[in-house]
Amino acid sequence: MAQSVKIYSTPTCPYCKMAKQFLEENQVQYENIDVSVNQVAAQEMIQKSGQLGVPVLDIDGKIVVGFDKKKIKELLGLK
User: What pLDDT is recorded for position 2?
Assistant: First the structure.
């Protein structure tokens, strides 16, 4: 279960906080990428998701836009 999880977020986004809290509660290691300060990452996020909104999660190359708990659980294999 060693998945690669990246979360593109901003410090002010409530859904980003919820998504990160959810990952932490489930002991999922993730890389947090703050797109408010990292323009390269912001462009990368837009290319991957087609979206400007955050959070965008990249779970083993599968993109989840927003805090879609059901889809995140499914991709991570959580109950």
Answer: 55
- DSSP annotation of 56 reads E
44 three-state secondary structure:
helix
Short-list 62, 60, 67, 61, CA closest to 9 = 67
Confidence (pTM): 0.92
Contact at 8 Å (CB) between 43 and 20?
A: no
Beta bridge partners of 63: 58
Contact 78, 26 (CB under 8 A): yes
Structural domains of the chain sorted by starting position, each given as residue range(s) with its CATH number in brackets: 5-76 (3.40.30.10)
